[in-house]
Amino acid sequence: MRAIGLDSFRRRKMKKRTGIAWNTIFVLAGGVLCIGLLASGLSLFFGGSLAHAQKARGASSQSRVGGEDETGPYDVATGWPQPLGHPGWIWGSQGGVFAETPDRIYIANRGELPIPEKAPEGYTGGYGAFGQPATQGKPRMQHCILVVDGNGKLLEDWTQWDHLFEGKTRLGSGRHGAASL
Q: Residue 12: is its pLDDT beyond 80?
């Protein structure tokens, strides 16, 4: 009986030793990986790219008047697209844009948003000028797919598909029913 008990004691002791060794190996390997990534990232930043980053910061701070750099290196085309022409409503946020040709551009629009009664000073026609995200307004899901030309003039309004954007979005169904947003 003692031999069986001693044998099982030895197995448990070996498992503990082996477990500690593997845990130590994983911790050390993870630490080495983290240190290597940190070192390579710092060397890239403080190496040749530091001067480049300082030049870029200096150039952008000289040309920038203020605000956030939302468009990157692109210039905003003022007045594009042209206003919808629906009194009291403005474009919602854009879900997607596809330029089939320079004069045929598809816009997937997240509905229209109501214009607040008092527009702020310097109102440019965009909902962002109100100081709140376009996702906070209560949209009406109309005029969701539009086609405009290169000047932003409305060519087609695919209102026949507006009903697809109303209501909840079904994510799928499983044994507990459908999940909705």
A: no
